[in-house]
Amino acid sequence: MTDPVTPTELLIVTIARLLHGVRHVAVGASSPIPGAGALLERALSNGATRVSVLGSRRHNAFTNGGVELFDLAAQGRVDAFFLGGGQIDGHANINLVGVDGYPQSPVRWPGSFGSAYLYHLIPRVILFREEHTRRVFVPRVEFISAAGPRDDGVYRPGGPHALLTGLCLFAFDKTTRRFSLQSVHPGHSVEEVRDQTGFDFDVPAAPVPLTPGPEDATLALMRSRILDEIGETYPNFAQGWRGTQKVAVGAA
Amino acid sequence: MTSINNLLDLRALAAKVPDGAKLAVAKDESGVAMAVTRELVRRGVRGLHLVTVPVGGLQADVLIGAGCVTTLESSGVTLSEFGTGPCFSRAVKTAAITLKDATCPAIYAGLQAAQKGLPFLPLRGIIGSDLLAHRDDWRVIDNPFAAAGEVDRIVAIAAIRPDVALFHAPLADRFGNVFIGRQRELMLLAHASRQTLVTVEQIVEGNLLDDDARSGATIPALYIEAIAPAPRGAWPLNYGDAYPIDTAWMQAYVRMARSADGFADAMAQWLVGDDARKPLVEARLGATAAVTADATAEATAGASA
Description:
The structure holds two protein chains of two kinds.
Chain A: H1 7-18, E1 24-27, H2 32-44, E2 50-53, H3 67-74, E3 80-83, E4 87-89, E5 94-95, E6 98-99, E7 107-108, H4 115-121, E8 124-129, E9 137-138, E10 160-165, E11 168-173, E12 178-184, H5 190-196, H6 216-233, H7 235-251
Parallel strand pairs in A: 1-2, 3-8, 4-9, 8-10
Antiparallel strand pairs in A: 4-5, 6-7, 10-11, 11-12
Helix pairs in contact in A: 1-2, 2-6, 6-7
Chain B: H1 10-14, E1 22-26, H2 34-43, E2 48-53, H3 58-65, E3 69-74, H4 86-93, E4 98-101, H5 104-116, E5 120-123, E6 138-142, E7 153-158, E8 164-173, E9 178-179, H6 185-192, E10 195-204, H7 212-215, E11 218-219, E12 226-229, H8 247-256, H9 260-271, H10 295-299
Parallel strand pairs in B: 1-2, 1-8, 2-3, 3-4, 8-10, 10-12
Antiparallel strand pairs in B: 5-7, 6-7, 8-9, 9-11
Helix pairs in contact in B: 3-4, 5-6
C-alpha cells in the first residue's frame, strides 16, 4: 500500500497533467511545486516535454544569460509557464506589486518580475497560488502587473490557461474571459471555494469532480526521482517534502 | 588594455563608484559583489540610481537600508526563501526611494539598446500593465512595418546606460580579462555600461583569451575599468556551487532588519573590523519580532526572474 497523498503531491501531479503534450515548459523563480510538476511531466513523457528551471544548474540548458527565456518566449518557443500573484482577479489580471496605494504602498510585494511580458507571449500560463482566500482572489486587482486577455488589438498569443489553488482547479476561457471550476481537491467543497473567492466564476451543472491524485507508480516516481531533481534547486522544499512522507510512514 | 595597475583592493574599487552614479548590479545567480558592497556602505556612498539586472536581493536591501539609494530601478527585490527585503519594504512605505518598477525583459532591452548605441529597443507584451503608466521612459509606438491598414502597438524601452556596472566573477587574468562562464548577462552589463568594476574569486596566470575553452565566456579588458580580488566575495550569498549561502547570517539579517534600529545594529556588526564573515549577534530575546512565514514571499511564487 502507498502512503496517503499529501496536498503538495496532489498539486504537483495536477500541474503535470496541465502540462500534458507541452514541448517546452519554463519554471520561474520561487516555484518549487510548479518545478516539481514540470519535472514530473518530463519523466512521464520520457523526456518529450523539455523543462527549463530558472535557478537550476542541472535542469536549465540556457547559455545566453537571463535574456534567453524572454527571447524564446517572444518567438513562441516556450509553451507553458507559471505565474503567481499577491492578488488575482476574475479577469485573470495579476498583481505582484502591492496594495493600498502606489508607489507608496503600505503593503509592498517584491515586484512584477517577467510577468508583464511573458503573460502576453506564452500560450499556456498556469496561475498558481496555494492560499485560496478573498484576500488573494479579489473582484479587481489594485495594481495590474500583468493584464489578462482583453479586446485591445494588442499582439497576445499567450495568456492564462488555468488557475490552481490549495482548494481547487479552475480553467480560464479566453473567449468569455472567465474562470470555470474544473475540480475541487479532496476534503474541500464547491461552497468553500465560493466562500473564499472574491470574484464570480462558472460552475458546471453536473457535479464538480474531485481533483484526482496520482497513481501508485506516479507517486513512487515523485517521491524518488522528482524529489531528488527538484531538491537540486529547492533543497529546503525537498527536505520538507521528505519530512511529510516520514510523518505519513510513521502514522501508517 | 587594462594592466596590472587596475588590480585594486576592495576599498579602492568602491572608491570608483561616485555619489549619484547610475549603478547596475547583477542578480544573485549571476554574481553579486557583496564584499565591495560592504565597502560602499562603509564609505557612505549617496544618491545612487540602482539598477538591478533584472532583480535585486540582499545587496539592494542593504544599500537601500543604509541610505545609499535615491532611485531604484528593478523588476523585483526579494531575499527568495528568506522573504521580502525588509529595508526595501520600509523604504517603499516611507517613500524614501523613488521607484522605477520594471519587468525583467525591459531591463535587458534597455541595456541591449545601450550596448548597440541605440535610443531604445522595442518589446512585445507589457501593454495593459499598470507599470507602463509609471514609466515615462517606456512609450507605446506603432510598429512601422505593420501590414497596411493594421495597427500593431509595441513598447519602446529607452536605453539604460549605467555609469558603473558592478559584479562578482570567477576569474580574471593579469591583463584585465574577466571570465564569466555561463553568466552571459554579465557580458551585456559590461557592454552597456560606461565603466565596469569586477571582483573575482581568483586571479589566474596567463591570458584567458589565449584559451579557446574560456575565451568565448570572457569579457575582454577593453570593457573593464578595474578588478579587485575577493575570495568568497559574494558571501553571505552563495556563489554557484563554490560556496553555499550563509543561512544563519541571512536569517539573523532578516530578523534584525525588520526595524531600522535592528538594521543599524546589523550594519555596525558587519562593517566593523577586517573580518566581514562573522555571525550577526541578535539583540536580546524579544527585542526583535520572530520571523513568520511571509505572505509576500508566497506572492512571488511563479514570477520569473
